[in-house]
Q: What sequence folds into this?
């Protein structure tokens, strides 16, 4: 059975004062327990803002978001991976984990770092780690905060694609082991095709769901031909709706 909670999005309206139109209006969808959902759409459409609402960071909207039946602002904080690693430079890798979850023991922190491929780096400072390694620490930190609900905001942006492949493999292993509910924000259809069980494409202003596609094949077991097919399908649909 999946460990992650059901996530229900029912937003009547979300506005920013700098925008003439609402960011969202009548935005509704549900993420079942243990599903990995990719949010795909062009830059500025509102994908990252939606993660902030789910995380309870931004509560200025009309509507409801519930996590396992609990209002988002009252639910346990999710594991959040941002577009940059956001590691505290004066803390070691292990200390960056305990900074957000003081209850993590040294052994647990080292074990989590080992799971993301950083065995032996618990006492390394961020400046001693490559960009890809810093992202792995950020992933370990997110799972240490909440292994049941994971929010991933363009977690591979600005990384070389050969580094991305290794990080994606680690993420797939963690998703398979923990079975969280997860939302992956990405502008790259190939990332959605590889990592997600389902993809929602957002477009327009106010942003709306223009496509909602469940993938029949199993995440982590798709062959190159299937990955190419899904990537092309997502790309074609995104381009069509953007016209």
A:
């Amino acid at each position: 059975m999946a460990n992650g909670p059901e996530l229900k999005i029912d937003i009547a309206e979300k506005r920013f004062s700098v925008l003439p139109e609402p960011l969202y209006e009548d935005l509704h969808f549900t993420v079942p327990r243990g599903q990995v959902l990719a949010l795909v759409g062009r830059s500025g459409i509102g994908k990252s803002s939606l993660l902030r609402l789910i995380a309870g960071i931004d509560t200025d909207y009309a509507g409801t978001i519930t996590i396992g039946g609990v209002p988002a602002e009252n639910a346990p904080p999710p594991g959040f991976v941002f577009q940059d690693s956001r590691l505290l430079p004066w803390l070691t890798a292990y200390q960056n984990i305990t900074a957000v979850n003081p209850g993590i023991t040294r052994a647990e922190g080292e074990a989590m770092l080992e799971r993301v491929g950083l065995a032996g780096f618990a006492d390394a400072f961020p400046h001693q780690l490559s960009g890809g390694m810093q992202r792995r620490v950020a992933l370990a930190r997110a799972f240490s905060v909440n292994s049941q609900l994971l929010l991933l905001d363009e977690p591979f942006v600005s990384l070389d694609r050969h580094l991305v492949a290794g990080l994606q493999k680690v993420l797939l292993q963690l998703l398979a082991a923990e079975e969280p509910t997860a939302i992956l924000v990405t502008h790259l259809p190939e990332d959605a095709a590889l990592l997600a069980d389902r993809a929602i494409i957002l477009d327009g202003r106010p942003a709306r769901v223009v496509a909602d596609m469940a993938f029949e094949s199993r995440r982590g077991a798709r062959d190159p031909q299937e990955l190419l097919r899904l990537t092309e399908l997502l790309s074609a649909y995104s381009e069509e709706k953007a016209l």
